[in-house]
Amino acid sequence: MVMVTVKQAEEIILAQRRDYGTEQLHFENAIGRVLAENITADRDLPPYNRVTMDGIAIQFKAYQEGRRVFRIAGTQAAGEKPVELNDAADCVEIMTGAALPATTDTVVRYEDLILADGFATITTETVTKNQSIHFKGKDKHLHDVVVEANQLITPAVIQMAAAVGKNFLQVKKLPKVVVISSGDELVEVNETPTPYQVRKSNNYTIKASLQQYGIDAVMLHIPDDATITAQVIADSLLQYDVIILSGGVSEGKFDYIPKALSACGVDKLFHKVQQRPGKPFWFGTHSKGVLVFAFPGNPVSTFMCLHRYFVLWLQHNLLIAKPAMYARLDTEFTFKPALQYFLQVHLRLDEQGILLATPVEGNGSGDFANLISTDAFMELPLEQDKFTKGTTYRIWPFALAGKW
Ligand SMILES: Nc1nc2c(c(=O)[nH]1)N[C@H]1C(S)=C(S)[C@@H](COP(=O)(O)OP(=O)(O)OC[C@H]3O[C@@H](n4cnc5c(N)ncnc54)[C@H](O)[C@@H]3O)O[C@H]1N2
Ligand code: MOO
Ligand SMILES: [Mg+2]
């Protein structure tokens, strides 16, 4: 099969829709998960006329008619039953968060008062009716949807769940993912490599990226051995929903992955994408529904493919895909090969609020040190080889969620 374009690869991958169902979680454990139900208000928000300044509560009519001195009939802390006031010449000393007494309608803060001998004197001429009150139901009404389904559970959502007494949240189940690294040159992180070995690192960045979506991936490693490779893949097909491999998909004598995947009954949907980095990317599906993303081993290739394809697929399946993001290239750039180039860029917002992307090229797809000083891949159009300063192109940010 001929190489597919980036667009074709994306279409093939996104056509693989999977629904892993839902589960209940205590709301305190749900950060970063995707909400699978609407959250509704169990009361109005706020649930009562909430005082927003420490001071006194009065009837505005009395102030309007010229009264400035009010007898303090009582004091009401937040959480206390509202004091009953029957005389317009009286006021209640009242605290932020307290429920406004029924016969009052205006709050005057301490800064605008003199308190002496059981009386409060208003020292300002700018009191307005209903000031310093957050009225019942102003924000939401009983039974209103306060958080819609199909969104990421953020700290603000956690706050809302707590406020409306929603102890358990229905969230989307996540795929069971195994991350399989491959290669005899790779040693464990706590080992000292020989002069001709390196430590495993691709699998850790994959696992860390998935953790941001709440996926706790299992990690396995296979040596460059055709039999073991096929065994581990066959085993994984029985246990997981998604298999992410890194390495062993190119032309090398010991690149056994594509053959082993085919031998295990995984249908190849494409092998090789017209892109740099990540050209030898292999993608397939198994009749059991398992998806196999076999990424090229060069660290920047694995990294780019993970974010450009796997994360996109995950977001689409969880219905949390974001609109495309764009940035303005801030220096001229040239790339001649007939491949879609994913340029590593550093992002910054200028003083006009325009997102600018500065290329940080690095030394090819083995140079993972370069990823440290970059924030995103800029996807440069295939049809061109000159990219002018000031032109806007699509970006794929990969820094920790929240950085961009
Ligand atoms: N004759 C050809 N050779 C290569 C081609 C080609 O088209 N023809 N493509 C090149 C491209 S592009 C890439 S990308 C790589 C892809 O290689 P593999 O997927 O076969 O990966 P490996 O050979 O196993 O490893 C490549 C490189 O990456 C390092 N690696 C692998 N896994 C890890 C890991 N878990 N942590 C850290 N580093 C890892 C590995 O040590 C190698 O240095 O092929 C080119 N060759
Ligand atoms: O695709 Mo390879 O990723 O160019 O090194
Ligand atoms: Mg290889």
Please tell me about this protein's structure.
The longest helix is centred in the C-terminal third of the chain and has 19 residues, at 299-317. By secondary structure, the protein is an alpha/beta fold. It folds into four domains: 6-20 and 175-317, Molybdenum Cofactor Biosythetic Enzyme, Chain A (3-Layer(aba) Sandwich), CATH 3.40.980; 31-45 and 138-172, Molybdopterin biosynthesis moea protein, domain 2 (Alpha-Beta Complex); 50-134, Beta Complex (Molybdopterin biosynthesis moeA protein, domain 3), CATH 2.170.190; 325-397, MoeA, C-terminal, domain IV (Beta-clip). The mean pLDDT is 96. The strands form eight sheets. The chain has a six-stranded mixed beta sheet with strand order 7-4-6-5-9-8. It has helices spanning 6-14, 60-64, 155-163, 202-211, 226-239, 257-263, 299-317; strands spanning 22-26, 39-40, 50-51, 55-58, 69-76, 90-94, 106-109, 113-116, 119-122, 133-134, 145-147, 168-172, 177-182, 186-187, 198-199, 218-222, 242-246, 267-271, 275-276, 282-285, 291-295, 325-329, 333-334, 340-349, 355-359, 376-380, 386-387, 392-397. It is elongated. Helix 1 packs across helix 7 and helix 5 packs across helix 6. A hairpin with a 5-residue loop joins strand 24 and strand 25 (355-359). It binds ligand LQZAQKY5, molybdate ion (MOO) and magnesium ion. Magnesium ion is lined by residues 248, 250, 252, 255, 297.
Task: Looking at this protein, list some descriptive labels.
binds ligand LQZAQKY5, 29% strand, Molybdenum Cofactor Biosythetic Enzyme, Chain A, 6-stranded mixed sheet, elongated, Molybdopterin biosynthesis moea protein, domain 2, binds molybdate ion, 4 domains, 7 helices, binds magnesium ion, single chain, 404 residues, alpha/beta
